[in-house]
UniProtKB/TrEMBL annotation:
Residues 20-114 form the Small ribosomal subunit protein uS10 domain. This is 30S ribosomal protein S10, chloroplastic. It holds the Pfam family Ribosomal_S10. SUPFAM superfamilies: Ribosomal protein S10. The keyword Cytoplasm does not apply.
Length: 115
């Protein structure tokens, strides 16, 4: 038995089962703007979204001596945090794919898309 899906007139279903979108950024605010934009596109085109799932934040830490020759106890510590989110977009239509391709994501957000 084949599954039948009700499709609004003029919209064709894409044969892809889902699109997995992984977003990474150093800034949480920019990451949230990108996630909201993707959710808005999916909502307006009738696609369903699983997520956003917050993935573990990657924290890189390093310590540097303040002075190259003296004051061994004087050190500076730095850290870099990489925040990431995972979204699965399901029940795709051609309109959904087109709008996702035209979507403008803020600079500073890395996007990985897998079909």
């Amino acid at each position: 038995m084949s599954a039948s899906v009700l499709v609004p007139h003029g919209q064709a279903r894409v044969p892809v089962g889902k699109i997995r979108i992984k977003l990474k950024s150093y800034w949480v605010d920019l990451l949230q703007v990108a996630v909201d934009a993707i959710l808005d596109v999916a909502k307006t085109t009738g696609a369903t979204v699983s997520g956003p799932v917050p993935l573990p934040t990657r924290i890189r830490k390093w310590t540097v001596l303040s002075s190259p020759h003296v004051n061994k106890d004087a050190r500076e510590q730095f850290e870099q945090r990489t925040h990431s989110r995972l979204l699965d977009v399901k029940n795709l239509s051609a309109e959904t794919v087109d709008k996702l391709m035209q979507l403008e994501i803020p600079a500073g957000v890395n996007i990985d898309v897998k079909l």
